[in-house]
Design goal:
Layout (H helix, E strand, L loop, with lengths): L3 E2 L20 E6 L14 H10 L4 E3 L5 E3 L2 E8 L2 E6 L13 H13 L12 E8 L2 E6 L6 H4 L10 H7 L13 E7 L3 E6 L13 E6 L3 H10 L4 E2 L7 H6 L3 E7 L3 E6 L10 H4 L1 H10 L2 H9 L4 E2 L22 H11 L5 E8 L2 H17 L1 E8 L1 H10 L4 E6 L6 H8 L13 H12 L3 H18 L2 E6 L1 E7 L2 E2 L15 E2 L2
Parallel strand pairs: 2-11, 2-12, 16-17, 16-18
Antiparallel strand pairs: 1-13, 3-4, 5-6, 6-8, 7-8, 9-10, 10-11, 12-20, 13-20, 14-18, 14-19, 15-19, 21-22
């Protein structure tokens, strides 16, 4: 699907004469919530990925057509099913002036695999070893074939930090990260701002047109829009669907709506500590009843003005491996009540639903609360700050938790970490040996038909076990000053700063 421009025509993004662009300007970006730690090995939030787009390049990137394209690596070659040769870009420097070479790539992968608290470990666990062939060539040998491996290097697993700085900082690296992106870290004030200044030694410096980038977490949708309209921020990500009309009506702004790769879901604690012993955590029948009570289409229409699409699996319909036999189920109260009766639980069934304080999440929680009540559930909505909600998931301090995933090009990136028993983000502590085997097999084959069949088994089984209830496929909604040009609508939603310009 092509992006919908709901303000100016497509050529408006290029309408400002080059001479008017301010090379020494500050670009101000509003985030929908604060980033977590600024270490690509440990980070896990979507907001953090926006910041990393300024701070750390990746070995590869994706473009508007979801093609994998070079960034820190110029190219690659599979010499056999388990060995990939990475040819690195010459002349790349870290922000501390040291060189990014094959030894740094080897260090980066090994750090991802061994650093305490790494959330990359599960993504690249198939790596057996990394060898330095020469200064600009690294050989990666895998334990087994991995069809999604290259796609993983388009995100944080493909970010390489300065070995010198990482060794010196140890566990405190995230407080003053040193990477190789277009902007270098200057300061961070929690819940207020993250400031980055242009790195003059950047390999693609000719495409960097700002002196400084400031990221500001602005959680409230209305305040984010007001700041855009007032000109105190230049770009706002995750603009509320209900604000699209206001952006369209404001000639000072440009807006884009286009399909994303991710999903919104409810994670259910089925094995992570004492809170897994709740009725919904203990019984798949109760989980199926809860699922049958939810009207996904109503959530998409009421909360997201119909811009989000209902979803029942961790892949979007645009993905060639999407399970077409698993469309989003319709609400079925009779089925929900029958399942609760079969489960033999006492009504109403208590459920604690944790949501973040983002306005759309609060509204979604309240709608689910009302829908579930009609089936025989007593849902208590617990609203908490995003970072606190993530910490609660990790520790098992939740029954049901609303969460989003920004999505990856390969479905492995949407499914493996959250559903495999050894997945780094399997905070439900869901365990199903069949699902593990299917996910492993899907990683190990490059045959598209075989992978499609395996993921069909995974998604069908998940819909039976329901450790995760998938709700919607979010659209990417971004608004910016009409003075900004050069924005690229890549389906991961990230703001790529290379090529962006602003007229002051």
């Amino acid at each position: 699907m092509r992006p919908i421009r709901f303000a100016l025509a497509a050529m408006a993004l290029l309408a400002v004469p080059p001479a008017a662009h301010a090379q020494d300007a500050t670009l101000r970006i509003a985030l929908a919530d604060d980033a977590d730690m600024l270490d690509p090995t440990q980070a896990r939030t979507y907001s953090g990925r926006f910041v990393f787009a300024a701070l750390c390049d990746k070995l590869f990137d994706i473009n508007e057509n979801l093609e994998i394209v070079p960034q820190l690596a110029l190219g690659y070659e599979w010499t056999d099913s388990k060995t990939i040769i990475l040819k690195l870009r010459p002349g790349v420097k870290f922000h501390d002036g040291t060189e990014m070479d094959a030894a740094a790539v080897k260090y980066g992968f090994e750090r991802h695999l061994t650093f305490p608290g790494s959330t990359r470990r599960g993504e690249i666990a198939t790596i057996d070893r990394v060898e330095v062939v020469d200064k600009l060539t690294a050989r990666v040998i895998l334990k087994s074939p991995s069809s999604p491996f290259l796609s993983l290097l388009t995100d944080r697993a493909g970010m390489i930090v300065s070995p010198k700085a990482a060794e010196a900082a140890g566990k405190d690296f995230a407080n003053a990260p040193v990477c190789n992106g277009p902007f270098k870290f200057t300061e961070r004030v929690a819940q207020d701002r993250m400031v980055f200044d242009r790195f003059d030694g950047y390999w693609d410096a000719a495409n960097v047109h700002f002196r400084r980038v400031v990221f500001q977490p602005i959680i409230d949708n209305a305040i984010r829009l007001t700041n855009l309209q007032a000109g105190t921020i230049d770009i706002g990500e995750r603009i509320a669907a209900t604000d699209v009309a206001a952006v369209k009506a404001d000639k000072r702004l440009i807006g884009l709506v286009y399909p994303g790769l991710g999903y919104q879901s409810l994670n259910i604690n089925v094995g992570n500590g004492p809170k897994a012993k709740s009725p919904i955590g203990s019984s798949a029948l109760v989980r199926r009843a809860f699922d049958a009570a939810i009207d996904r289409e109503a959530i998409a229409q009421v909360v997201y003005n119909g811009l989000y699409a209902p979803l029942a699996q961790g892949m979007t319909p645009s993905n060639p491996l999407y399970n077409k036999d698993l469309p989003p189920p319709k609400r079925d109260l009779a089925k929900a009540r029958a399942l609760l009766k079969e489960a033999g639980v006492t009504l109403p069934v208590p459920v604690v639903l944790t949501v973040t304080t983002l306005p759309d999440q609060l509204q979604t929680g309240e709608i689910i609360q009302s829908m579930a009540a009609e089936a025989g559930f007593d849902v208590k909505v617990r609203a908490t700050e995003f970072g606190t909600a993530l910490a609660a998931q990790t520790s098992g301090d939740f029954e049901v938790s609303a969460i989003g995933w920004s999505g990856r090009v390969d479905p492995d990136g949407n499914l493996y970490n959250g559903l495999h028993s050894k997945g780094a983000l399997n905070e439900s502590h869901y365990v199903n040996p069949d699902v593990d085997a299917w996910l492993d097999a899907a990683r190990a084959t490059t045959d598209l038909a075989a992978r499609r069949a395996l993921y069909a088994k995974v998604t069908t089984q998940i819909q039976q076990d329901l450790p995760v209830l998938y709700l919607t496929n979010p659209a990417i909604i971004v608004a910016m000053s009409a003075k900004v040009s050069g924005y690229r609508p890549v389906p991961d939603g990230l703001i790529r700063l290379q090529g962006l310009k602003i007229a002051r």
